[in-house]
Amino acid sequence: MIIPNVRNFNGGQKVLLVGAGVLVVAVINAQTRDQVPKAQSPGVPQWQTAAGGKMAFEVASVKRGTFVPPSFPLDGSDAFTRTGGRFIANFPLVTYIMFAYKIYPSPDQREAMVAHLPAWANTDRFTIEAKAEGNPTKDQFRLMMQSLLADRFKVAVHFETQQGSMFALTLVKPGKLGPRLRSHDEGPPCDAPAAPPAGGADGWPPTCASYGVGPAPDRTHLRGGWRNATMADLAQALASTGTVTLPTLDRTGLSGRYDLLIEYTPESTDAAGTNLLTIMGVQPDPQGPTYLDAMRDQLGLKLESIKGPVQVLVIDHVETPSEN
Fold it and tell me: Phi/psi at 265 (nearest 5 deg)?
């Protein structure tokens, strides 16, 4: 059945959100089941084409339930250990949509999006357990999730391109890296068993995965890190950490893969960081550097305001799924 609160919206009611290189426009239209719009349109992101186009799981079940560990992180990075086609996760619909379309808005932007979606889309947890043929990549799993969401949740979207404000990630000094940004080749390989522990005084993250954040050893700062990342990966991660409120594009000119380590004090508006420090019983150092200051001094990177084309995801329709 169609959720009653969807009927309270019309085509003119939109909320603009900017995420990791994507401007999200949530448009929830009141429509009957027979009026569900098509979920695909011109302007599909390049990564979808590179992953092979439309795909679907062989079998899949959708049930309400409590949290279970996902078979891999549903984040925006390409870091991924293949699972032999197995997928399991337990998240709200909003999380699955962000994963399926590789969209990772900042916390404030996500909150704005949720305010204009039916409440269940961000509160009700759904366990999705599925099996795919072969040994798909992470982006191929995203394509399969798109098909599942269209089939079971009647999620319908289309893409547009608009001119908008954004940030460019650039080097503070051309050709010069900061002291905590190094070429990945200068550190241990990803499969090295003796990678430095994350808790060491100068320890880099012990594994090559997505961007991670935790308390620094002095327990007055947060420490963020990533190994074997591209600058495009970092640009995309900035919005999901709550650091910036606009899409961020890589304009560093750095084409390789890098290890990075950054320590900073969350600002009062950085809800994710502040909550983490509170949970860990850590008192932030009021004299510590902000993320942007630390990015400049420790990584040799900065953000510049620019205008440019931004790809837009328009969410046209959602429904509660039938469980099985």
Answer: -105, 125
Domain boundaries of the chain, sorted by first residue: 165-308
Q: Supply the DSSP symbol for 256.
A: S
State phi, psi for 272 to the nearest 5 degrees.
-65, -45
Per-residue pLDDT of the chain (324 residues), as tens digits, is 333 233 233 333 333 333 333 433 333 333 333 344 444 444 578 888 999 999 999 999 999 988 899 999 888 777 788 999 999 999 999 999 989 998 876 555 567 667 778 989 989 999 999 999 999 999 999 999 999 999 999 998 877 777 778 899 999 999 999 999 999 999 888 877 544 544 444 567 777 877 777 777 777 788 888 889 999 888 888 866 666 777 788 999 999 999 999 988 876 544 444 555 666 566 767 788 988 999 999 999 999 999 888 776 777 889 999 777
* Per-residue tokens: 61: 């079940």
Rounded CA gap, 192 and 201, in Å? Answer: 20
Q: Which two tokens stand for residue 263?
A: 């320590």
What count of other Cβ atoms lies within 10 Å of the Cβ of residue 259? 21
Asked whether the beta carbons of 178 and 300 are under 8 A apart, the reply is yes
Q: What letter would DSSP give residue 234?
A: H
Burial class (CB within 10 angstroms; exposed 0-12, middle 13-18, buried 19+) of 198: middle
CA atoms of 173 and 195, how far apart (whole Å): 30
* Three-class secondary structure assignment of 169-221: EEECECCECCCCEEEHHHCCCCCCCCCCCCCCCCCCCCCCCCCEEEECCCCCC
CA 71-227-175 angle, 5° bins:
145
End-to-end CA distance of the chain: 15
Indicate the pTM of the whole model: 0.65
Encoded amino acid at 143, one letter: L
Q: What are phi and psi of 172, to 5 degrees?
A: -65, -45
Tokens of residue 111, six digits: 């909150």
3-state secondary structure of 199: coil
